[in-house]
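Annual report, structural modelling task.

Input specification for the magnesium ion complex:
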Amino acid sequence: MLRLFATVKKELLILLRDRSGLAILFLMPMALVTIMALIQDAPFRDYQELRIPVLVINHDKGNLGKKIIDGLTNSKVFQVTLFTESEIEAKKKVAKSDYEIGISIPEDASEQLNLRIQKFVTITLNEVGIVDTRVKEQTQSTKDTTISVYFAPNIKKSFRNSVLSSIKQVSSKLETQSMLDNFKKALNQDDDSTQNTNQAIDDFINFKEEAVIENQYAILELNSVQHNVPAWTMFGMFFIVITLSGSIIKEREDGSYLRIKTMPGSYFTVMAGKIVTFLFVCLTQCFLMLLVGIYLLPHLGLPQLIIGTSKAAIALVAISSGLAATGYGVLVGTLFSTHQQSSTFGAVSVVILAALGGIWVPVYVMPEAVKFLAEFSPLFWGLSAFQNIFLSHGDVLSVQIYIYKLLLFFGFCIGISYIINEVRQ
Amino acid sequence: MLNHEAIQVSQLIKKYKDSSTPAVNDISFTIKPGTIWGLLGPNGAGKTTVISILCGLLKKTSGDVSIYGLNYQENREEIKQLIGVVPQDIAIYPTLTAYENLKYIGNMYGLKGQELKERISHCLSTFELDHVSNKRIESFSGGMKRRINLIAGILNKPKILFLDEPTIGVDVQSRNIIIEYLNKLNSEGATIIYTSHLMEEAENLCSYISIIDHGKIISDGSPTELLRQHSSSNLEQLFLKLTGRKLRD
Ligand SMILES: Nc1ncnc2c1ncn2[C@@H]1O[C@H](COP(=O)(O)OP(=O)(O)O)[C@@H](O)[C@H]1O
Ligand SMILES: [Mg+2]
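The model returned the following structure:
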């Protein structure tokens, strides 16, 4: 324990004396997040108002389904994709943000609508003394027609409402039309009646908004701040690879590593000292970045960062991301023999992993062909976990898969480094 | 432990991965406790390779090495507590102060608190570095760096001290302090293993000398024995006689 403590203290002292290292570790990510959040503020808002991919399941054989699809297509706001699989599958796709909206039109939508309208027409005509002779018996009971609409987690509230009202418009137009048709048909048999009903026409079709992620809280919208703060936090954490691998290589180059090897304490104590130190750096970074999001960005005219409800989940994701980043740094420091090589490879690889992981541009904006690559970026795992916590009020359970992935990545890096180190002697 | 030789080496061979000839080619020797053993040879003879294997920094290709009856495969951590190492290159963190470096090293040996503090200030004053205790190593002169490098190796009061060319590139004053200190340490019971290419220094300091070239020990004995055997008047002459006048890289 004394050895670990001494090693951590030594590493911290060396870090504190390295001004340019400190700038890379702390100032750079804080500057990046501020700049990127400002730059992307407008594009983020625009993007939300552009073409919206909608997934439609149409089980309806009649007019209603067709009309809704036509209405969505003609609005030029939506990009409609018809889907033939189950509603559960559709919800999964929407949950993953493959589509931003899902709409399910049930099998008997048109039929039920017609039945209800007929019933309404008959009752209305009866009230005014006209008997609709077409309908002898009105025993068949009618049900509400429920069209389910579900949204991806990152959809703006205002946008949801406009989608719902667009769909309502389409269907109420249809209702009015078929109601008039029914009245006409009924009245044609009784020409002298020109009565109008005073009864208000209610909506027969109920729209029900359903959450794709089961949670009692409202789901927040993704904006520039909500994207950029966790994104650049992950980037900053992984950028320690340069400082960490540099510290490992410098020790090897200047012979301190040889001295360490002649002193008691194993490879693991030495590495543990570095890991603890840089994990501490990562957590400090993360904390500072969240502070920037909560306190600094609002002063610059941006929305305030909202961090969800589970502090424990944030802490666990931060720790596992920090470990993944330090593990990667140890691996890079072990793999390369000069600082030049390690910092070049470290920087380039982190930038690539960041790009793939949706740090620069969110994954859902990316072309399909590269979207799947995000799954291979540890930065994406951390970012997804943070966004789940921040936007969907995720907790430890809902982000556990990301935590496992990050920890596994850490173990993998340390394992490989250990093997390389053994083989090299 | 007392009835063991300090170091026993038999049929030691070291072949680096990417070289055709072994850097250490089947050498055997025994070092009794309390010896100041000088391993002398021209550049590239294999001195650093031998000493690195003896202090556990390098894996041997074959042969046996035992330190007070212990070996590196089974008793690495115990051996580490017994030995001190002063590498050929300065191995001290340049951005830390002398005190911070020594405190870290002391902690690694399990020393702490007042005991460590006293040990550090004793060592610093022995090597006349107490006035720069709180200065960063990067501001030190070459001789000062050599001295702090040496202190780092003796902080744990080792039973065996390994020094690889400890007096390389230092002025006469620093060299004097170092040689004096090694004599004193030896008189307190430490075994000292030391490499050099400076014959005069070795002649005065060492009680036993091995001359190594091309990875083989070509002659050994006490300085007087060696001179008598080869009827030379001084080691410098003997050295040239044994290793030739051809320049080494
Ligand atoms: N890491 C290494 N890889 C390959 N060859 C080496 C390595 N280190 C030393 N050598 C070679 O081994 C020989 C002995 O080197 P060394 O022990 O450093 O000599 P000395 O310390 O006596 O100058 C030299 O020929 C040197 O080139
Ligand atoms: Mg050497």
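The interface with chain A takes residues 55-59, 77, 80-81, 83-85, 87, 89-96, 100, 103-105, 107-110, 112, 136, 152 of chain B (CB under 8 Å).
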